[in-house]
Amino acid sequence: MLCAATLALHYAAIDWVGGRLAAQTHRPSELPPSLMTAQLKLSLPKRVESAPVEEIKPLDEAPRKPLARPKPPAPSVAAMTPASMAPEMAQEMVQEMASSAAVLAAASDLADVAVASGQQAGAAQAQTGTPPPEVAQGETPAAATPDAGPRQGGRRYKVNLPPSATFELAVDRVDADGTKWTGAATMTWHTDGSHYQASVEAGVSLLITRINLLVLRSEGTIDDAGIAPVKVTEKRTRRAETATHFNRDAGTISFSASERSYPLLPGAQDKATVPFQLGGIGRADINQFGSDVDIQVGEDKEATMFRFQLVGEEEIDTKMGKLVTWHLSRPPKPGSYSSRLDIWLAPGLNWYPVQIRNTEASGALTTQTVSNMKMTDK
After folding, report:
1. Taking the chain, what is the end-to-end CA distance rounded to the nearest angstrom?
2. Residue 335 burial (CB < 10 Å; 0-12/13-18/19+)?
3. What is the pLDDT of residues 235-283, one digit of tens each?
């Protein structure tokens, strides 16, 4: 009986302690629940050296083909024979002039052949890199070969564009003299898979209002090369609105502020779409960032080739927290553009551009950093 009572008391004690522990375990915590997030980190691709970037010349500066040299007319034998000349002498003169005319015609034909041969030789030398033959002093070369223009083409990329989204950006600017400005910007990206619309509105904050300094609006289609702009408009404070047209049927880029036009290359972009095109290249295949990324960009009055280089992986501070990004940079290029453009893409956030920085030649610095982001379905 004593052993049974002891076992019963032990069982009751163990059951009571277990119930108390269970109650403590399931009691709701007074602290708010915490959210743990994980960010995707990808291995950087192996660096591959790229060939020098090619210049894109305006269409009106393309080399022109030399006009064919007209043949000299053969002299009229009858017109040059005096009527008062004796028949025998006239006959001899006619024969001599006929021979001279034949020689002139043959010489003209030989000259045309020499010109054509010289042009073919110049083309072959341009392809093989063989220097042209030297010409003795006082001697005229058979034909002058015009400089060959640059190859109008570009590297094609696989592109997987990110879904539609709206971004709120904090703008910080430091002028060359050290003056600091703060503001805000709104960036939108919308696509239904076949068409797109993109816009950027940036301004500075003054007391209780904001003044827009820049408004960019771009619209177009989506093709095999990614974003295919059709028209982009740009409006700056105290300046008239300008437009850039991507004439896909004609294969040209034209501008409302200039009479120049440029050849339209595959994958050409405007300033509003460049960040999203880069994001689409990263989404499609990160190894494409192993070499320089060349993108033709039409802006203001010209279309130039932007070369972006992968700087590396960086963690940036935003109002959304710390974000792991891939930093791409377009260094200044003397003779084309004097500013440096840096773009930070977030692989864990659909490769969206989360920070953009422009460093002007004067030293002025403008940085736009994402403060809020919302994915949209329409």
Report:
1. 79
2. exposed
3. 988 889 999 999 999 999 999 999 999 999 999 999 999 999 999 999 9
